[in-house]
Amino acid sequence: MSTLRNELKIVTKGWWVAIVVATVVVIALTLGLVSGAMVLDRSHNVSAPEIILLVPMLLLSAVFFAAWLTVIGYIWGDAKRRKMRHVLWTLVAFFCPYGLGIVLYFVLRTPAPPTCTDCGAIGRAGFSFCAQCGAPLTPFCPKCNRPVERGWNACPHCGIRLAEASPTP
Ligand SMILES: [Zn+2]
Ligand SMILES: [Zn+2]
Questions:
Q1: Around Cβ 88, how many Cβ atoms within 10 Å?
Q2: CA–CA distance, 34 with 134 (Å, rounded to integer)
Q3: Ligand 2: centre distance to CA 129 (Å)
Q4: The whole model's pTM is what?
Q5: Residues ≥6 apart with Cβ < 8 Å to 8
Q6: How many whole angstroms from 45 Cα to the centroid of ligand 1?
Q7: Could you list which residues have their CB under 5 Å from ion ligand 1?
Q8: DSSP assignment of 124-162, as one string?
Q9: For the segment 126-167, what is each residue's pLDDT rounded down to a tens digit?
Q10: Coil, strand, or helix at residue 141?
């Protein structure tokens, strides 16, 4: 859950505002159109259950609409972070029907660049140290100084026990 919250941080504040405004406008427009149609169409008597059914359907559509806009905003920030063509990908995600552009993006996106655990700066693929604060972006074996991965118990290059040599942060 916390990773999801961290991921959603790349959706800009301006876009969150746009999502709320767009969702409210769509709800208001739909309500306006429906009530307008009911006023015009006096001959057709709309019963109360029909209107009550309409409200949850409208709210559900609004939730889907807001979620879709959130994904579009996420793709903008995520593609930018991964040094992909973020404008192009956002347009593809926005205009491709049935969310095909969104699926395509998540299939084709390049691997995420390493993020500095010390200062939060975003590095680039192949960077070993943070360009902002100099902290190591990938853990190193304390004996042979070759890159190792988190969760490894031993260094595959020199065989030293990593859990004993360097306590995981
Ligand atoms: Zn850093
Ligand atoms: Zn080693």
A1: 10
A2: 59
A3: 18
A4: 0.67
A5: 70, 74
A6: 66
A7: 116, 118-119, 121, 130, 132-133, 135
A8: -TT--B-TTT--BSS-B-TTT--B--TT-SB-TTT--BH
A9: 788 889 998 888 888 889 988 888 788 999 999 999 875 444
A10: coil
